[in-house]
Amino acid sequence: xxxxxxxxxxxxxxxxxxxxxxxxxxxxxxxxxxxxxxxxxxxxxxxxxxxxxxxxxxxxxxxxxxxxxxxxxxxxxxxxxxxxxxxxxxxxxxxxxx
Length: 98
Known about the structure:
single chain; alpha+beta; 2 strands; globular
């Protein structure tokens, strides 16, 4: 990790975007810290993890991504977390083509 900026990246689609994105970002990071002691330890003084990167997605992004994967319907859920960038990169790539 030395010499690299490592952070979690979140793709978020808001129904109503926050008025103050900086405040939302700080609140989001603090909520993650309070829910996960491992995350909090890694965020301590930005030693291992930098603040999360939040990408605001246009409305319909996740619906369109699921549709592109033929995964619409009640039995199919949008993945919430992943240990790799596969889904994230797919969504970011498709986001420009919707």
